[in-house]
Design goal:
Blueprint: H1 3-15, H2 26-43, H3 46-82, H4 94-119, H5 121-128, H6 135-139, E1 148-153, E2 157-161, E3 167-170, E4 175-179, H7 180-188, E5 192-195, H8 201-205
Antiparallel strand pairs: 1-4, 1-5, 2-3
Helix pairs in contact: 1-3, 2-3, 3-4, 4-5
């Protein structure tokens, strides 16, 4: 590895859409080359120190740009993978492959935390649902008129608008007070059964 090799890689990386294959030991080879220059600089005479230092600075600038360009490509690949497309970071070194895998995990975790309740509204509705009312509490209500019916739900029912203008979201085993028209429709579909509301509560509580 030398400065000319690195500059050729730099040019190819600019032209390439993907990652050019550099070999798994690319960064180790660059590190060894930099270490060699630093060692030569320590033992060089005054006339050669400036020349070696110039090569060192040039090499560091070149490797920095190579890495930045490759990292940009890796970030795009990781984002694509995190959103479900099967893409492989062909040409990545071992070090770059670890960065790719870490990025995929981080993007997926971030997506789940930020968009989880947005792209899955049913989950959010479930958590925001009002507490389930028990059968006993409904049977003790005194404001259930003839136009309402108490029903026990037999299966999950999508949200619907009742004839009273309210939205209802019912799940299996819920007990609810519904407008009579809606209650009858659910019972006719065999997704709910009506519960008779008697007037024996006072006797039972005595």
């Amino acid at each position: 590895m030398n400065l000319e090799d690195m500059r050729l890689i730099q040019v190819n990386e600019r032209r390439s859409q993907g990652l050019q294959a550099l070999g798994h030991d690319f960064y180790e080879n660059v590190r060894a080359y930099i270490n060699e220059l630093e060692d030569r600089k320590r033992h060089a005479d005054a006339a050669r120190v400036a020349m070696i230092e110039d090569e060192l600075q040039s090499a560091r600038c070149v490797i920095d740009e190579i890495f930045k360009r490759r990292l940009g490509k890796i970030v795009k690949m990781a984002s694509t993978r995190a959103f479900g497309l099967d893409i492989q970071p062909d040409g990545a070194t071992q070090e770059e492959l670890k960065i790719f895998e870490q990025l995929v995990c981080s993007i997926q975790e971030g997506k789940s935390k930020i968009l989880g309740s947005i792209v899955q509204p049913k989950v959010a509705e479930k958590t925001e649902k009002t507490p389930r009312r028990t059968e006993s509490s409904l049977l003790k209500r005194t404001d259930i008129g003839k136009e309402f019916t108490v029903v026990r739900v037999l299966k999950d029912i999508p949200t619907f608008m009742g004839t009273d203008g309210r939205s209802y979201q019912l799940s299996n085993e819920d007990v609810a007070v519904l407008p009579e028209v809606n209650a009858k429709a659910l019972c006719d579909r065999h997704v709910a059964v009506a519960i008779k509301v008697g007037k024996s509560d006072k006797n039972e509580d005595a």
